[in-house]
Design a protein that fits this description.
Largest sheet: 6 strands, antiparallel, barrel
Bound molecules: FE2/S2 (inorganic) cluster
Distance between the termini: 52 Å
Helix content: 10-25%
Number of strands: 19
Oligomer: single chain
Shape: globular
Radius of gyration: 21 Å
Number of helices: 9
Length: about 375
């Protein structure tokens, strides 16, 4: 078990190309695919023009996946990058009902070209800025991908970092990146990586069970003194929040990656548009006009009336739904899908913005 608290090197200072990347349109070409488990593949992409794919480990990219004549926008965490940042990797499970992931598994091969947008997201090591403490990564299922990206960066740029990675998988066969975990442990002498399975099979002698305060006290007894990054299903993250608080951890040092839409605070819609918001506002988008009712997002209003705005995450993360606000005002809260520069240029996110006046928008 890694122990002790040591100054954490400033990763961003050592690797300036990891910071400050803003979302942009990308033309990608698949250069390699790699099987991780029976239903999980890693796809390696390069920029079609050979340019660098700058991003911060932990960020995500949205792919435009052409399925049956329709373009599906899906957001994937970047699980890794080449040392020269000219390639990025995403790791995706073929979800039984996931049209985009099933299409990728069936069709992605070297030479496949895809349009994309990114990078985006703020679940990165930059949140540790100024930290003088160790770090703990706690993931479940595909929540391993941002952790892997951050650990790969630490292994390259700050291998002496005091780090714990606890990963929970359903069965031993579902453990992602087993070989990579071993490689990272060899490269980072103070990394303690532990795998927990909830449904062990014969021959598994590792940790078992659901995440609990008791289990965490064994795996990470100094959890409260670390920067903690958590990614997994909502129930898993909630359990970690409770355990972290019970251990006396500072909530500001608990960093959570949310894949599901953030719950809106009670009364949020009323606070945005006013309880007596009155009649719907008129929204012009190019040649189309639709109405946006009180409390609904521009995306919801457009979809209700058959107006198509490209949608990726639907929760203000990916920037796929960005439109430019030419006239009018909106209330908007997002999760990093727009850069400050894009906001200054007048862009808004249709999935996260509500009209507070009549609007004129453009793509
Ligand atoms: S769809 Fe991802 S930010 Fe709106």
């Amino acid at each position: 078990m890694a122990a002790g608290i040591a100054p954490a090197p400033d990763v961003l200072e050592e690797a300036p190309d990891l910071a400050g990347a803003e979302p942009r349109a990308l033309s990608l070409v698949c250069v390699e695919t790699r099987r991780e488990t029976a239903d999980v593949l890693t796809f390696v992409f390069a920029a079609a023009d050979g340019s660098a794919l700058a991003h911060a480990p932990g960020q995500a990219v949205t792919l435009a996946v052409p399925v049956d004549g329709e373009v599906l926008h899906r957001t994937f965490t970047i699980s890794g990058a080449s040392r020269t940042r000219d390639r990025i990797e995403i790791t995706a499970k073929a979800q039984p009902h996931g049209r985009a992931t099933r299409w990728l598994h069936a069709n992605a091969a070297p030479g496949l070209a895809l349009e994309a947008r990114g990078p985006h997201g703020s679940f990165t090591l930059a949140r540790r800025e100024g930290a003088v403490r160790g770090v703990a990564f706690v993931s479940a299922g595909s929540g391993a991908t941002p952790m892997l990206a951050m650990l790969r960066a630490l292994a390259e740029d700050a291998p002496e970092t005091d780090a714990i990675w606890i990963h929970v998988a359903r069965t031993p066969d579902n453990v992602l990146f087993a070989a990579e975990i071993a490689r990272l442990q060899a490269a980072m002498p103070r990394l303690d990586a532990r795998v927990v399975v909830t449904r062990p099979s014969p021959g598994w002698f590792g940790f078992t069970g659901r995440i609990s305060r008791r289990l965490m006290s064994v795996l990470a007894p100094d959890l409260a003194r670390r920067d903690v990054f958590v990614c997994g299903p909502e129930g898993f993250m909630q359990a970690l929040r409770v355990i972290h608080a019970a251990e006396g951890g500072d909530p500001a040092r608990l960093h959570v990656e949310r894949f599901a839409p953030a719950p809106e605070p009670a009364g949020d819609a009323a606070s945005v548009v006013g309880e007596d918001a009155g009649p719907a506002f008129s929204v012009g988008l190019g040649a189309k006009v639709f109405s946006a009712g009180p409390g609904e997002t521009l995306m919801q209003a457009a979809a209700r009336q058959g107006v198509v705005i490209p949608c990726g995450c639907g929760q203000g993360l990916c920037g796929t739904c960005r439109v430019r606000l030419e006239e009018g005002t909106v209330a908007m809260r997002h999760q990093g899908g727009l850069s400050p520069r894009e906001e200054a240029q007048g862009y808004v996110l249709a999935c996260s913005a509500r009209a507070t006046s009549n609007l004129r928008l453009s793509f």
